[in-house]
From TrEMBL:
Transmembrane segments annotated in the record for this chain: 102-122
Organism field: Nostoc flagelliforme FACHB-838
Alphabetized UniProt keyword annotations: Membrane, Transmembrane, Transmembrane helix
Keyword Transmembrane helix annotated: yes
Protein name: Uncharacterized protein
Top-level taxon in the UniProt lineage: Bacteria
Residue ranges, annotated region (Disordered): 163-184
Length: 184
């Protein structure tokens, strides 16, 4: 029976040792959990402080943005009021009858100017009195303008070409009747 007693004792001792080990593991887990809670609380406090600081910065930015929007709104309202005044003035001016006369005169001036510019630029070549006159200044392609100092040169060149042409025709026998019958 001695062996049975020892077996029962060791089985009991193993059970007690197992419970002590479980209790120590439980206590260790409790301590770890307590430390984790302490760390979490400290992190929460630090993050709350940081979050509060960030929230304060965001609030300041939001207030500044709100003030800027208020200023923009005031400026828009002021511009709208100015535009409204201008619109009422323009309406009164149109209603007075003077606008029709001014519109008619401005139309005449505009279309006359456009016609003058088109008339000066439509021909391929045009003669102008000087290079400081309106004829020359309104011309878009200034290379096609003939000025008085160029006129004599152009006439002389034309006469030379004309004489060369007559001389070439005489040499080739064009116009003498010699070309008509080659068997003579």
């Amino acid at each position: 029976m001695g062996d049975d007693t020892l077996i029962a004792f060791f089985a009991n001792a193993d059970a007690v040792a197992q419970r002590i080990q479980e209790w120590n593991e439980y206590r260790l887990k409790q301590e770890i959990a307590a430390k984790e809670r302490t760390i979490d609380i400290q992190v929460d406090k630090a993050s709350n402080a940081k979050a509060t600081q960030l929230a304060a910065q965001k609030l300041l930015k939001l207030q500044a943005w709100n003030e800027a929007q208020t200023q923009r709104q005031k400026l828009r309202h002021k511009r709208f009021e100015q535009f409204k005044e201008l619109l009422f003035w323009a309406g009164a001016w149109v209603g007075s009858g003077r606008s029709g006369t001014l519109f008619f005169l401005s139309g005449i001036v505009t279309f006359t100017t456009l016609g003058l510019i088109a008339g000066l630029n439509w021909p391929t070549t045009i003669a102008c009195k000087s290079d400081s006159g309106g004829c020359y200044l309104l011309r878009l392609d200034k290379k096609t303008v003939i000025l008085p100092q160029q006129f004599k040169n152009i006439l002389a060149e034309y006469e030379r070409n004309k004489n060369k042409s007559k001389h070439l025709k005489r040499e080739q026998g064009i116009g003498n009747g010699e070309q008509g019958n080659p068997h003579k």
